């Protein structure tokens, strides 16, 4: 295995057509390990919410669940978009896993003493994804504009997350949910530009068509296979918890 090799775009959209690689994309072993760790995050967050069974506990569960899912989604996209079987990718996976582990250990007491380290772990994973996007933009000019825009959509809500550390509840909740909405739906703005929406002015559509001419896509078969494996892990953990 090489230490580093130039990543390859597995599939991409260009002028309304999806161009795909000829070889199949299989689920790697480290992807299943990431899924298993995320199932543990759901269990820890759910157990913490079930101990109190109040509206405040449900609110904390929603926040921690969405944040953990966003990290998991970033990892999934980076694997699905680009083919790069080297040591650097393995080290990147280890860093993401370390961030997920640090994030998990601070879930239970996030309403009291561990909110700051929780956000620090989350932002470490998210900003690492932004650095990864910028690095891909440097080595793959074909998708450079898309990767830069994705990195910007990570940096903007990250500033709001940092600001939420210095605000006390309940005012903190406003910043939290603004940042969550930007994390979840900020990339949708890029898709609107890429899909040549009729709602945009003519000049804006022409600019978007030139800027986002190539857009990386997700392999549907790989997505289905990985989702099936994830659901299997969830059911398996549920059975073990019942026993």
Automatic annotation (TrEMBL):
Coiled coil: none annotated. The chain crosses the membrane at residues 87-108, 120-140, 146-167, 174-193. Keywords: Membrane, Transmembrane, Transmembrane helix. The keyword Cell inner membrane does not apply. It comes from the Eukaryota. This is Low temperature requirement protein A. It comes from Cryomyces antarcticus.
